[in-house]
Amino acid sequence: MGYLLKGRWHPGRRDNHDGAFVRQSSTFRDSISAGGRYPPAARRYRLYVSLACPWASRAIIVRKLKKLEAAVSMTVVHPDMLENGWTFGGEVDATTGRHFLYEVYRDAAPGFSGHATVPVLWDTETRTIVNNESSDIIRMLNREFDEWGDPSVDLYPDDLAAEIDAVNGEIYGAVNNGVYRAGFATKETAYHDAVWKLFDALERIESRLADGRFLVGAALHGSGCGGYLLPLSVSTSSTIRISSATSGICGTTRTFGAGSRTSTNCPASARRSISCTSSGTTTEVRRG
Ligand SMILES: N[C@@H](CCC(=O)N[C@@H](CS)C(=O)NCC(=O)O)C(=O)O
Fold it and tell me: Which pLDDT value is given to residue 255?
């Protein structure tokens, strides 16, 4: 892990004094749109993703559901994010000629400050980052490439947009980002705050799924693409990478994975406690 400060790479982490993880805002927020600076085109844009990243994974899922594999190419970074951040596994990335994702950020903005995150939507023509915010990227993939993809799939239909936004708001703050707030907290109070908000939100989402197979409406939409990934990220990536496992996640994961009503297979008492593994030591935290 590391970050760029005015274009210079610094390995390591920037800690917040209260121990809380603070997500940086995405910096590149341009749009692909007909008549705009970045018009829709086949084989012009490239997606940089990590399979370990839930934000990038939702872009991968939307690209697949929209059948855009041929129109929008994709590079998967090496799974390890170490002192050089995301890398191309010791190889030079053929599209950008770079070894590290932070160099790609620097090419797009030489004085860039911040983390070099995935996903990235790269324009091979102007050789810059169009956008590095997954919620924007999935909307562009959904709407702007229908000429080359599957127009019958609409993951953000106008009539459900308000409800999708509302559900996404809850998923984003307490769950998607909550996993990071828990996992990257460096003080116990910040960790507890994040973790209980995360599991309260998971329970609310679970009750929402009690009435139907999908988070919004009668089919898979943008919320589901994010929502489905959250239990996976909590139960796999986060357990390994950022230590926010809980004994209650097993039932929750089944519920989301099946997309239908499933009663939790963990006793309620188990869901009142969290086991937190850090540096090989597991501690159990009980809710008061
Ligand atoms: N707002 C961004 C967040 C992306 C993000 O946080 N990606 C993480 C991986 S899951 C990352 O690349 N982190 C690298 C770092 O922090 O140095 C989005 O949703 O696209």
Answer: 32
